[in-house]
Structures are given as structure tokens and as C-alpha cells.
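Supplementary material to the annual report.
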Amino acid sequence: MVNSLIKLENVWKVYKLGKVEVVALRGISLEIAPGDFVTLIGPSGSGKSTLLNMIGLLDAPTRGKVFIKGKDTATLSEDELSHLRGKTIGFVFQEFNLLPHLTALENVALPMIFQEIPEETRRERARNLLISVGLEDRISHQPAELSGGERQRVAIARAFANNPELVIADEPTGNLDSETGKKIMEILTNFHQKEGKTIAVVTHDPHIAAYSKKTVNIVDGQTSINQVKAKKALWSK
Amino acid sequence: MVQINEYFKIALRNLRMRSLRSWLTILGIVIGVFLIISLLSLSEGIKETISKQLRALGGEMIFIMPGDLSNPIAMFLGGAELQKEDIEAIRKTEGVDRVLTMSYKSVVARYEDEGKTVFLAGVPWEEGRDILEKFQGWSLEEGKWPIPGKREVVIGQQVAKEIFEEKVKVNKEIILKGRRFEIVGILNSLGSKTDDSFIYMDTPIYKELTGEKRDTAQYVMVKIEEGALADKVAEDIKENLQQTRKRRAGTDVADFSVITSEKMGDIAGNILSIIQFAIIIFAGIAIVVGGIGITNTMFTAVRERTREIGIMKAVGAQSSAILTIFLFEAGIIGFSGGVGGTLLGAIFAKVIEKYGQAHPVVYFSAIISPGLILFGLFFSFFVGCLSGFLPARRAAQLKPVDALRRYE
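Predicted assembly:
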């Protein structure tokens, strides 16, 4: 199992809100293999965003271990993690998270700056990515001048900027109408199929889950691969 | 190192995004640097002028003035004089080469039917002219020196150009106490407005004109013998004067001052150093306030851009990148303030200099050395970085997940 991209081993995450401890993840074990298209699905408050932070190396677990390509993330420094994250993982967020005063092109080129890619290459690649998501005539527009769907397409282009092995999308269609959402999912699926990218999508929308081959249900900070069992667990509460 | 350039661009763009706030913060630094540069260049200029004048004096002069030097106002207004015996005592002191006495008085002078009060000074031309020229730096702007014994005068710059409505010309007549004198020369500036407001004439003629026949003096200059030590001679003069006074008045209160030109320079230098020190303290406070302004604006920026920081970290920015960007922002603010402050300070100093030349009190030029300019620029950049360090570090230490957390 060394060839898994991301591996979670009995991961717990406990937040302290004042004196109250909130357990967000209760011993989750999960593996994402190269080339997977995984959907993490669960109701809001189920801990799926927390789980996504773990997979995306944005946060460290309270207990348990996270491995990236067989390497224990606990042994890496903050800066090493940042570097690794920038190189290996691309993010698509629900609220797009573009830098408001950068143009589409500059937003897409941003992750490449931190990987020390020369300017010429950056511009070239960013332009190509924007063209591939159908934004060739929006290249020098700022996010404020773009529609929601266009913004999310810029974000997707950015996620693929450093040619990452894994792209994580957190509710990528959550702020979009269903028609636009569908297009966004098509673009993501396209990247998966054409370039063999590993993709992990977090959603609460079963329609989105339908795009992927593998679905992981999250309920109360625990995973269940079986959807029926998950539903039962949900209803029994 | 490719990215340093990029970080700089990002920092610059961020500053432009909040340009009003950036400019206001820059203004804070401009004021501080402006104060430092203008005041330092002016005081440096005054210092330079004084030391130049003192250098012209030469090292081997001693000045004796009646009255206590620690109370200069009483000294000048009190009309105290050195008596004939005092002057004799000075003359007899070992190591004294030549003694030059100087007396002065204010009189009414008439030039071209215009009457004005001026200072009239008696100077012994015959024995003293070379000393005045060599050691006091006297020189003629035009005309010639008076012939001793003749009713001829030279006038200072102020008398020539400012005091009378009509510009005073060489070879014209001036009437002093009802008697006609010929103006034969105009002196170059002697370095102070007071000295330039004098009319100088030969001592015997001065005595005759003013009726001062007691051979007193208000001011004595001593040129010491070659090889003699100025400090030693000054001490001896002091002692001799004290004895003379004790004999005459029965008191040993030292109501005279003996000072070497070197010491005079020291006193002036000390005073200026204190002034410069005070300037640096006050301007320093202004800089600190400006620096706090930078810290404040940077903390605000970190708060506002927490999410942006989170995004940048999520897409691979290391802490050092965030730190660099924020330090650049603070540094740019500081440096811009430095450029503005240095420029304004230099302009202001030059304006004061020009004003000073048009309305002279003391003659000086503002000294804006490249060193001072470099200091202004680097110092302000440094202040900017220093002030921005805490906010930048806070930004760098933000955890990506915390920075990205939604604020709803």
C-alpha cells in the first residue's frame, strides 16, 4: 500500500471551543490511490471539511497519522508541508478563494511563483490552462468582473497550475446554480479522464457524487463506505 | 531568488490597493525624516561655518573681554571696559607678542542726508591690520584700507547694503558726529550681522572723535609669540589681570574673561552638539511615531488579508514568502517616506539657506552631504522593516486552515 497518494490512519481531530471539546473526526482511516476520483459525501457538520483539511495537508490531526506518498506528514516542517502542498495538491474551494486584485492569469500563475517557475513559463502555462477551461477571453479580467462559474473555472485552472498529483475540491458547485455546477463538474471530470489526475471532491449533493467511481460517506466524523449503512446511522440519530 | 522580485511586485500591488492608507502612513515617515534631514543639514552647515571662521582665526589668538563670559548679555550691555592698567598688564605678560585693543560705541551717521545709528569701532590700523587680515579673515570687497591717521573709514556689509536706503559707495563721504569722513573701503562679510554693522576707523581718530581719551578698551585681542602655548599665556594673562584689579579695586572678583580661540571653538562646538543632540532626539520621536503608524497599518492589513494569506499558503507559499511580502510592504512605506522626507528636508534647508543669505543674521550654507541622504533613505527603510516585522511575523505564522476558515 506504499503506492497510495494520501493515506489516513486512525485520524482524530478534536477542537477546543473554550472548555468544550468538539470531536470532528473519530478515527478515520482512508486511502486515496493515484488516478482515483473520490467523493466524500455527508451532511453539513459531519466533519467532511475537517477531513478535507487533513487530506489537503492544511491541518494536522490531533491523533493518528497522515501519509503523503508514504511519508509521515508529522515529520515535515511547516515550510516543507507548504512546499509539498503547492507542488502535489491543487485546491478548488466553494467560495473560489481567488485573490481579488489579481487578474485571472495572475491568479492561475500564483502557485507557480512559490515553486520558483520562471515568469515566461508561468504565463504560458497559465494562459493554456485558462484556455482549456474556456476562459481565453477573460484572461486579464479581475475576479470581480467574472461570473461565479467563471471564477470557479479560474480556480480550477489555478488548482492544476503546478501539475499536481491530487486536486481537492471542497463543495466546488456549492455557490453555483445547477447548470453552471454541472459544467464545473464536467471540467473536473475531464481533467481526471484526459490527464489521469487524482481528484477528491467534498460535497453534500448526491448528484455530484454520481460523477465519481468511489464514494466515501461521512457521518459524525466517521466513514462508512456502504451508503445504506450510512443512511441508517443518520436516521437512527 | 527569482521570487524575491515577484514578492516585491505583490507587495507593491498590495500597497496600491489601499493607497490612501499607504500614503497617510508614508506621510508619517516623511515628517520624521524631513525633520531629521532639514535640521541636521542646517546645524551641520552652521557648525561648518563656525569652524571655518575659527580656522580663519588661527590657533594662537587670545581674546580678553571685560565682564563675565557666563553672563554674556550683561557683558555686552554693561559697558564694562578694560582699563589702561589692565591693558598694560596684558602687554607685559610673557608670551604676548602684540596687543590689539578695540573700542566701540554707537553713533549717528549721516549718509546722503539720511541719519542712522551705527556702531563705530576704533581699531589700531598700523599695528593691527595684518593681524585682522591674517587671523581674523578681514578682507575688502572693494576700495582700499584707510591710511593710519587720516580721516578714512571702512564699512561692514550691513552698513554698505542694508542700513541706509541708498547703497553706500566707496569714495563717498559719511558724516559721523558732525564730521566728514571718507569711505575708502567696504569689507567682505565678517561672518555675523553684528560685526557687519560696524564702521571701522583708526584708534587715534576714534578717540579724538568720541572723546575717549582714557585709553580703555572693550575688547582686546592678543597675538602670542611664536612657540608660546596659548593656554599657558591665557592663564598668565588671567593671573596678571587679577592682580592688577586687586591692587586697584581691592576685590578679586574676576569681571573679565580670557579665552583662547581654540576654546571659543570648543564652546561653540559644544553648544551645537547639544543642539544637534536635541534635534536628533525630537526627530527620533517623530520617526518612532511614524514607525508605530507603519506597525498599525500593517497589523490592519494582516487582519484584512488573513484569508489571502491562507490562500497563498494553501497554494504553496512558505512562511518566509509571506514574511518577505509583508516586510517588503513595510519597507516600501518606510523607504518612500524616506525619499519624500529627504527631498522635502533638502529643499527646506536650501530655502532657509537662501532666506538666511537674503536676511543675514549668521551666514551659513546648508550641508546636504551624500552621506546624510543615504542615511535618510536607509534609515527609513530600516525603520519600515523594523516596524513591519511583528505584523509580518504574525502573518507568516498564520496556519493555513485558520487563515482560510470562513468568517460568517
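The radius of gyration of chain B is 32 Å.
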